Structures
1.
Amino acid sequence: MLAVYAERFAPDDPLSALVVGERPVPSVPEGWAAVTVRAAALNHHDLWTLRGVGIKAEALPMILGCDAAGVDEDGNEVVVHAVIGDPGAADDETLDPRRAILSERHQGTFAETVVVPRRNLVPKPASMSFEEAACLPSAWLTAYRMLFTRGRLAPGQTVLVQGAGGGVATALVVLARAAGLRVLATSRDEAKRQRALELGAHEVYAAGERLPVKVDAVMETVGRATWSHSIRSLRPGGAIVISGTTSGAQPDDAELTRIFYKQLQVVGSTMGTRHELAALVTMLDATGARPLVDRVLPLTEARTGFEAMAGGELFGKVVFTL
Ligand SMILES: NC(=O)c1ccc[n+]([C@@H]2O[C@H](COP(=O)([O-])OP(=O)(O)OC[C@H]3O[C@@H](n4cnc5c(N)ncnc54)[C@H](OP(=O)(O)O)[C@@H]3O)[C@@H](O)[C@H]2O)c1
């Protein structure tokens, strides 16, 4: 079958390890299901995989992609939950230390067929296109859990979203606005700041710009480049919820003094549960809010999408169709 995969790791030139070619259809273990992929979305995770982060060499060659929407063997339209945990683990598979997300130990979604545990299939509402639904399982689910489960934000509170152009960040802006939060966002790029306003942010600021108010929570995925600004932007007792470190994991100043003196909370967040994915789908169906798609490309042109992400050119998600 047609697939987009990593044949080796290339830490400094990840796109050199990207292959668009043929791979065997994965076998279907008992209790698992084969999904005919109709759309699959790109994440920064796919670039990390090409660099060799989060995956062992013996897993190669590995089909990339965490996110997909498609049709199961019974003809049902489904969204594919990307976190695969022990079926015996407690309800929150993100806390299972042996969990993996698609394309780490199990072949990913950038292919004609993806095979996952049957419990990982969430019904896709008819109101949502395959392209929109394909955006949800990683970036949008991560944003949902950051805001509502880990951040415990409630309508009327104020949230700052760093790096507004990113896949997770655009999801944070849309979901926070739909949930009745006051939304501030930063971006390095003026055009992206304007787009963030159109998307639902109430106020936008240049990266690192001092805010006129202190916020209840900051949603952080940029890491090193924005960490200090995030800490300084919080009200006493506020929370920084972090799920990514795109610009690096080692801040110049961890701001430890401010963290204890202002009694801040630093909260980690990773992906989400299948129940949260189902709740996210219901939220979008009910509110009419939709994922922001930067561009849709046929899977055969996946390299163009990877190049745009590596170059930081995106505003929203890249979706591949089959
Ligand atoms: N823990 C999880 O479960 C989970 C799930 C999904 C993603 N993630 C992680 O979250 C991060 C974001 O993922 P994504 O798919 O949203 O990536 P993305 O679409 O590539 O977005 C990254 C954004 O970060 C900002 N940025 C990058 N470098 C920067 C710098 N030097 N200074 C300031 N801002 C910078 C940019 O925003 P502007 O251009 O607007 O400034 C960019 O749009 C990744 O590291 C990813 O691995 C984690």
2.
Amino acid sequence: MQRHIAFVCAPLYRRAVQLQKKGEHPHAVFRSSRCKVGVQRQVRFTVPGLRATAVMPTPTQAPVRVQVPRRELGEKAFGFTLVRSEFVPEIQSYVRVYKHDRYGTELISVVNDDENKTFGVAFRTPPSDSTGVPHILEHSVLCGSRKYPVKEPFVELLKTSMNTFLNAMTFPDKTCYPVASTNLRDFYNLVDVYLDAVFFPRLTPDTLAQEGHHIELDAVDQPMSIKGVVYNEMKGAFSSPERVLMSASQRALFPDTTYGVESGGDPADIPQLTWEAFKSFYDRCYHPSNARIWFYGDDPEDMRLQKVAEFLDAFAESSDRPPSMDPKATAISVQKRFAEPRRVELPYATDESGKFYTTVNWMLHDTVVSLDADRMLSLVVLDHILLGSSAAPLRKALIDSGLGEDVLGGGLESDLLQMTYSVGMKGIAQEQDTERVADLIFETLRKLSSEKLDDNLVLASLNTIEFRLRENNTGSFPRGLALMLRAMTTWLHDADPVLMLRFEEPLKKLRERIASGEPVFQKLIQEEFLTNTHRVQVVLRPDPDYAKRTEEAEQARLAALKQSLPAAEIEKIIQETQRLRAKQAAPDAPEDLAKVPSLHVSDLDRKVKTVPRHAENRAEGVTILSHPLATNGIVYIDVGFDTTQVPSELLPLLGIYAESLFEVGTHREDFVALQRRIGRDTGGLRAAVLTTQQVDERGDGAVIQRLFLRGKATANQVASLFDILTDVLHEIKFDDRERIRQLVVEERAGLETRLVPSGHVMTASRLKAQYRRSDWVNEQLNGISYLRYLRALQKRVEQDWDQVKADLERLHQCVISRQGVIVNVTYPQIDEVMSHVDAFLEALPARALSAAADTNAAPALDGVSLRPMNEGLVIPARVNYVGKAANLFDAGFRVHGALLLAARYLSNTYLWEEVRVRGGAYGGFCRLDPRTGTFLFLSYRDPNVEKTVDIYDGACDFLRRIQLSRDEIDKSIIGIIGDMDAYELPDAKGFNSALRYLTGETDELRQKRRDEIFSARIEDFRRLADALAQVREHGSVVVLGASESIRRAESCLKLERVEPALPGTDV
Ligand SMILES: [Zn+2]
């Protein structure tokens, strides 16, 4: 339900770390169907009548292991008073609210048996302009503090902690600093650094210059330019039309409040931020009386209180600020309702083929303070009814209309004081169609509010939401953090923080109301949408000259400024530029770096984390894997079909084929009925295509290609889940041309939208494809090649449908068979589900259509020959993604755990410093894929091209020169082990274990790598240097970026080919 995180900063850095974290399978790339069906659990409904009873309600008793200190309400401890204490069964936790005696700071202590401990400190930070002051502060407080006087303690922690989450987030009205770790000592190290950062940062005008904005000038005859980390970040963010639209939609609804400005900062406004405004915003907002502190997990409660008390006491001693700031200074005012609907139109930067975007946005009636939990839940279910799946009537009406390429707008938004709703479309060809989209939205809503809603539609949504709430599967995101953000909805505005954590009562009431025949949702649609005049339609108009005009206007402004300045001032700017650069380049003093707390190598577990796995090999190559893990009553099932026999011309069609499995319907039911059945009777089903390769000495093992069908259900839903799978696999009907066309258009539009923001992923994919066949397949299925294929496929669906349909049918026959299938079950009582598995397998066709049986169709991989090549791919953006790669196996090296360590060190030091801090890119890093041996340098949102390649080429000299103390090597070891031991929920544990089984990555091999890491020495870093000399000499370069930048670099980088990433882009 949290969709509106404005900025999760340093995302690239996180992504790089997370990629390593998935480190177990860095090479397995998924293209996964969007999970339009959510998750649900153990709820049986009797139809009709809509009476529902939870078979497995949330237990109301705490597990014995969970204990809180005995303390009466009103009792004091560590300068806090306990003001509230209760057991919340929905989250199996004690929730206790403490209030600080001096500052009134509220601290919520959630005690349970989750080892993934979470801490967060949040401040109410409503901005009054779009200079991005909250966002710049979020970056700035992490740039050194009283106890940790180094340039970026945050980066030090990323390098050397075992964190499962470490980041900061700026929302429209708050700034959050959360951390998580499963290691107690590590957790408190992180808490200490974060508390010191927010209450005692070393803010100076230089911090604002570096993180916010400053003018750079190298010489008198050079042009001036604006630089700054957030300035660059927001320029990048605003090059995405969807991001522009999201911002504009919110701002248009709240012209009179803080939500009417851009908290992340508008690049046009950021340079107006002064040091005085910056400092006074900090003083006003970052005060203990405006802080909300959250702890969650299995650490002792008193430790929490003691740690925070330490900082608040120090604050009292050192700060001259009063014990309480005026709470009104950060209170968020209520937007007055519009008497009439409004309309806003804005230009956005696009290439020639630009299309229109539109959303219709409502401000709902309640504030999150006045709202009760029942109404909130009703709205959440209504949102799912309207938009939650491809069968949802509002989503379906929009898609069916063909007016645009995909549905847009996040639906219900409950992160702001006043809730909003947003829906629209992207990829609209004609301006007048933006009106037709709005008309269609109203027409559909009117229809829904006047008719009785289909029972199965309501049940599917109710079940899906309930399953989601109970399973609380947050993936790699810590559960404690998801709950903190949920509590923050009300807590931020001084309302009941526990309200949003409970759901049993509201669920029960909602079920009863529905059962009694009350038209709950029709009424809501009427009140919140149809008769609500507080709404705005926002239209984004494509403007091919917009980027150029903005750029020219900025340059003209700077040129005029330079003209107006006396020579002495100009000289001063040149000197300042040099001074700032020198300051950024100066290393931290070793004694200061040593102050940043870290674990010791001795705190780490030498043994690799293993997952229990039982493998049963049957006739016909069938494998059954099972993992007896505690899953809270949920059965997770993955069925993997071998796709290596797919002929080459059908290979790229696998994605759309997988996407269509649950989306086109069968001979028995159309896709709407199928989707509702999945929502009603299971916890969700999706298909994913996986490509990886077998572990092999030369990093060139057999390619593994699988189509995975992944589902979840409660034990007594397993039969229904397999029924649905069997129906789909036996009865699927590829007749519906329009439906397939919609899927292709959605897929294409989605990938095109991600092309620029995920340019580094595309660049990496393109480069890796030059070295290994498995990566080549991945590029065909996910990369630029795939995007080009989709464009052609869309035309084929329109012009040559019969052939496309025949291809889909042939693909289905090539893939679905019992031969070589793998079934992976994660659940403690495997026996309970085995009979269903057996029956399902029995019903599968014995053999697939083989490619060889087909005249002139060889398996896709037979004809592949790989060749490294320098390539420039032009995209309509003002930023570049620069990659360089080579395969170390091919250059005669062997992958060793210590090389992985050295590569990670290089990312965190040299590349971070040179590509990000000095080069002005948003990120720069490298990766060594242990399975293939491909080494890859990458930059993210980079203003440079050749300069970045020079930095890559300098990496081997950097590694040859470095002197590393044992302590520094140990810190790196801690960091990489932290990545490798990433926290996983049981479904992820079971699935990753199955992937390791497929690739032959044994626990012995993993242990060997781990041992190699622990025994790393400086010589290993030098060994990587030798390998990187090979990358420098023989590596290939791929640049995805702006036309101008690529043209400038073309001869210097010896680009063999320069072409638009997508046909139709101006080169
Ligand atoms: Zn940021």
3.
Amino acid sequence: MTITAKYASKCPHCGQTIQPGEQVEWTRGTPAAHTRCPAAAPVAAPARRPGLVSAAEVIARRKAMVRRRRGGGSFLDDGDWEY
Ligand SMILES: [Zn+2]
């Protein structure tokens, strides 16, 4: 169950100090542990392979490119630039 720590203690998972007032996961007879313990957190998603770009990302990149062109105003040599 989740309780508010009343005493300072040490998290059995990560070894970090638990301060009084922190939310901890505790079961009678076991030491209190962080409710969101960094040691118990799921492993971060593996890095995406380079070159593998999602469709949403392509659209976002295109929008960013357009924004740069509109905002900059320095693309005077660009044929389709009209303002
Ligand atoms: Zn912990």
4.
Amino acid sequence: MSSYAPALITYLTRIRFEFGALAALGEELAFAGITRPLLCTDAGIVRAGLADRVRAALPAGMEMATYDGTPGNPTEAAVRDAAAAFRAHGADGVIGLGGGSAMDLSKAASLMATHPDVPMSNYAVIEGGLARITDKVAPIVCIPTTAGTGSEVGRGGIIILADGRKVSIGSPHMLPRVALCDPELTFGLPPILTAATGMDAITHCAECFLSLKVNPPADAIALDGLSRAWRHLERATANGQDREARWEMLMASMEGAMAFQKGLGAVHALAHPLGAVNNGTLHHGTLNAVLLPHVIRFNAPAVHQKFATLAQVMGLTVSAATEEGIAGAFAALSARLGLPATLGAMGVPRTVIPDIAVAATKDHCHPGNPRLASVTDYQDILSAAF
Ligand SMILES: [Zn+2]
């Protein structure tokens, strides 16, 4: 029976989750063995005053350098700049502060500052990079300021390589030693980013749960995360100061990433290459929100028996436990959040369909999809999303 197939399950991250968790930064840096950190973040986070709050939370006398050049989607060039800043400072660890891009960049910088200076494609999961990443990676502490990616508990990052491919670079050695989750740091996130990043969390939970790989703990975490996000994303979007909604969304985001140790699927296999289109300016969460209903329809023959559980967790009626009921509920939530409904509305040119469809079959998330998708299948899913 397929549900008794072999399972490989790994869970162990130190997570400090509370309002005001940032005050424990000194203690957690000591736990991680970091005495001279490089802060990896982006210019918006600095403008919002969050980098200053991190600096103020440092132990007296600790010297921290800052790299704030993280692009919307992190690039190999930016990672190399951050690694150079690490070496120039004589750093012994990194703090990743921000959304998924800044946290992913912090992990990749920690890798590149401590490993042979070869093209980063050598470290990509799809190129066998896992075996080249050693315990030399400098310790990482991640502090999320968005609720969506969950990168603070993820073991890698998504990087746009110098050759234009958007790939995953990851290893257990790149797992942050500590995730410092402070919902107060998400209060300033604007409504549209709250909505888009929140849909990323929802997609992680839904896509993991629907994957046919065997990982019951991941399934349970994914369903808990989906339930929290489903009930609180609109509240957090409508009122960024809603403490309860912000706490719930940060928890859902973290749970989504804990769950995706199990593996994601076609939504992410498509969203990754699409993230490199239009100079890497398309928001990952928004892409997921657009694609999720179409992938659910495609996957329905393989996963329809799971729709009743999803409907229950999402508070839908029993009659909505169908392919259209579930896909429609996700699309309706996106619409209520004010997110675009189609790739066209996001500014994606139709001409990219053939290349994205091919790239999706090479993405590390492709094999995890419950129904094996061909290039033609991906073309059809993309066409439906326009
Ligand atoms: Zn994602």
